[in-house]
Design a protein that fits this description.
Number of strands: 6
Strand content: under 5%
Mean pLDDT: 86
Helix content: 55-70%
Order of helices and strands: HHEEHHHHHHHHHHHHEEHHHEHHHEHH
Structural class: mainly alpha
Distance between the termini: 41 Å
Low-confidence stretches: 1-7, 54-63
Largest sheet: 2 strands, antiparallel
Length: about 500
C-alpha cells in the first residue's frame, strides 16, 4: 500500500502509543514473564496481519480493484464509473455498484463546486446496454425521494451556502480543498490519540485479569470506536481515503467494516426510517418492533419491559457481529432490504480472518488464560457493557414517535427523521462521538463530527426559516424517555387501518 503522508504519520503515532503502553507497565513491574510472552505472541500475530494488509493494501477488497465495469444508476440513468478516479477512493464508488446511487451521490456532493452532471455525462452507458442492467435488489428502485428541482430548492441552496461559508475560509487558510477542510482537525486527532493511548495502556491490566478493567475496557473501547471508527467509515476522518479505509480494521468490534458500509451507509443513511429500505428498522423483528413496517407479533407485547429492554441492548452488538453477518452471507441481503454481493474466495478468506480476530478479542482469549468462572465473567460483562453503550448512543436518535415523519425532499427528510440530544454537554459529545448532533450528521455525513457543533446553530436557524421540524432533547433523560415511549407504543397491536397503510416486512 502506498500510504500517504497523513497515513504514515497516523501509523507512526499508533505504533508509538503501542510501544509506550507496553513499555511503561514493564518498568512498573506489573506484568509477569508469562504476560509478556502472551503479548509477544499477540503482537507477532497482529504484526503478521498488518504486513498482509500492507502487502495487499486496499486490494484486499475485490470491490476496490480495477474492474471492467462499475455500473450505478443515478437519477434513472446508468453510468459506468470503472475508469473514474474518485477522490474519495475506490471503496466509496464500490458502495453504489449495481445499485441506485442517487441518494448517496447527492448527500456526499453538497460541497462540490463542479458541474457534477457534466462529469457524469462522460460515463453514461449506451441505452442498449442500460436496458440490460439491473440492481442487486429489485426493491432498490431509487424511490421515496423526488429529485427533480432538488438542487434549486431554497432549503437545499441555503444548506449548501452554510457549508461553503463555514469551510471556505478554513480551506483557504489551510490551502486545501473544501472536502479536506471538512475532515478531522488536529484537536480531534489529539482526542483520538489520547483515547487510544488510554485503551492500550489499560490492556495489560485487562489481560492480567484485574476486575476493574471489566468496566473500564469496554467504556474506553466504545469511546475509541465512537470517536474514530464511525467517522472513518463515513470517509470523514482523514483527508486521504487510504487512512479512512485502513483504520477501522484496527478495532472492528462493533461490526465488520464491510458489513457496516452496507447497513449504515448504503441503507440507513440513504433511507433513514423508510420501511423496507432502512435495515436499522429490522435488526431483530421477531423480538422487537421498532417501526410500523414490521409485522406485529404477540412477543412484541412486552418489549417495553425493563428486563427485556436491557437484555436486547446487552446483545445488540453481538447480533450485528454474528447473527446479522451470518444471515447476510446466506441471503445475500442485509436484513432483507440491502442487496449484498457474494464475496470472492480471496475476499472471504480475509473477511474470515478479520472475524476470527474479533472472536479472539471478544470471546476466546479469557478461556485461554483464566479459570472457567472468571473467563465467563471476562466474556460476558465487557460485551454487555460495550453493547449497551452503543445502543444507548444510537437508538435514541431515530426510534422515536416524533421521528416517524417523512419527506420526499432528501435533505428535509434527514432532518425530520432525526433528533439531537445533549448538545450543550461536552460529556455527551465525547461519549457519543458526536452522534448527539444526529441531524447535522445525517445532513452532512462526509463532515467530521468535530465541525458539527459549529454548524448546528446555522442548520437550526435555516430549519426555522423554512418550516422544517428540527428536534432536540436538552438532556439524555428526555431523549431516552421519548425512545422508551415509542417502544411501548409499538408494542400495541396495530389497528386494521394501520395495517392497511403500512407495507409489512415479515422476516
Amino acid at each position: 500500500m502506498d500510504f500517504s503522508k497523513e497515513g504514515r504519520h497516523g501509523t507512526t503515532i499508533l505504533l508509538t502509543i503501542a510501544v509506550v503502553a507496553f513499555t511503561i507497565p514493564k518498568s512498573l513491574n506489573i506484568r509477569t514473564n508469562e504476560d509478556i510472552r502472551h503479548e509477544q505472541y499477540l503482537i507477532l500475530f497482529l504484526g503478521l496481519c498488518f504486513l498482509l494488509m500492507k502487502h495487499f493494501g486496499i486490494h484486499l477488497l475485490d470491490e476496490a480493484k480495477p474492474q471492467p465495469h462499475l455500473y450505478t444508476r443515478i437519477h434513472g440513468t446508468w453510468y459506468d464509473m470503472a475508469t473514474f478516479k474518485h477522490p474519495g477512493g475506490p471503496i466509496s464508488l464500490s458502495l453504489v455498484q449495481d445499485r441506485d446511487g442517487t441518494a448517496l451521490f447527492k448527500s456526499h456532493h453538497l460541497l462540490s463546486t463542479l458541474d457534477i452532471q457534466k462529469v457524469l455525462k462522460k460515463y453514461e452507458v449506451p441505452k442498449e446496454t442500460a436496458r440490460e442492467l439491473t440492481t442487486l435488489d429489485a426493491n432498490d428502485d431509487g424511490g421515496h425521494y423526488v429529485w427533480t428541482g432538488f438542487d434549486n430548492d431554497v432549503f437545499v441552496k441555503d444548506i449548501k451556502q452554510l457549508l461553503h461559508s463555514y469551510f471556505g475560509p478554513m480551506a483557504k487558510q489551510n490551502n486545501c480543498t473544501l472536502y479536506q477542510a471538512a475532515k478531522a482537525t488536529p484537536k480531534r486527532w489529539t482526542l483520538i490519540c489520547v483515547l487510544a493511548l488510554a485503551l492500550i495502556g489499560c490492556l495489560p491490566f485487562y489481560q492480567k485479569g484485574h476486575y476493574w478493567t471489566l468496566f473500564i475496557m469496554p467504556i474506553l473501547a466504545w469511546l475509541v470506536v465512537a470517536n474514530y471508527v464511525h467517522d472513518a467509515l463515513h470517509f470523514s476522518l482523514a483527508k486521504d481515503w487510504r487512512t479512512n479505509a485502513a483504520l477501522p480494521y484496527l478495532l472492528p468490534i462493533l461490526s465488520s467494516p464491510w458489513m457496516w458500509y452496507h447497513q449504515h451507509i448504503i441503507g440507513h443513511h440513504a433511507y433513514t426510517n423508510v420501511g423496507r429500505k432502512d435495515p436499522d428498522l429490522a435488526h431483530a423483528p421477531q423480538l422487537k418492533r421498532e417501526h410500523e413496517s414490521i409485522k406485529w407479533r404477540k412477543l412484541h407485547e412486552n418489549q417495553g419491559n425493563f428486563f427485556r429492554f436491557v437484555f436486547l441492548w446487552s446483545v445488540g452488538s453481538l447480533g450485528m457481529n454474528l447473527l446479522n453477518e451470518f444471515k447476510t452471507h446466506i441471503r445475500l441481503s442485509y436484513n432483507n432490504v440491502v442487496g449484498f454481493r457474494k464475496l470472492s474466495q480471496r475476499r472471504m478468506f480475509f473477511h474470515i480472518i478479520g472475524r476470527t480476530i474479533y472472536l479472539y478479542i471478544m470471546f476466546l482469549w479469557p478461556l485461554l488464560r483464566f479459570p472457567l468462572s472468571k473467563a465467563a465473567m471476562f466474556i460476558v460483562v465487557p460485551n454487555m457493557i460495550f453493547s449497551c453503550l452503543f445502543m444507548s448512543a444510537s437508538q435514541i436518535n431515530h426510534n422515536l414517535e416524533d421521528c416517524s415523519g417523512s419527506d420526499t425532499n432528501f435533505a428535509k427528510h434527514q432532518v425530520i427523521t432525526a433528533q439531537n440530544f445533549g448538545t450543550r454537554s461536552t460529556f455527551w459529545f465525547v461519549f457519543s462521538g458526536g452522534l448527539n448532533y444526529q441531524i447535522e450528521h445525517h445532513l452532512f455525513p462526509f463532515v467530521n463530527h468535530c465541525h458539527l457543533p459549529f454548524l448546528a446553530p446555522g442548520v437550526k436557524e435555516l430549519c426555522r426559516k423554512h418550516g422544517v421540524d428540527y428536534k432536540e432533547a436538552l438532556d439524555y433523560r428526555k431523549a431516552f424517555a421519548c425512545h422508551l415511549a415509542h417502544t411501548k407504543e409499538l408494542s400495541k397491536p396495530p389497528s386494521a387501518l394501520d395495517r392497511a397503510a403500512a407495507p409489512i416486512l415479515d422476516k
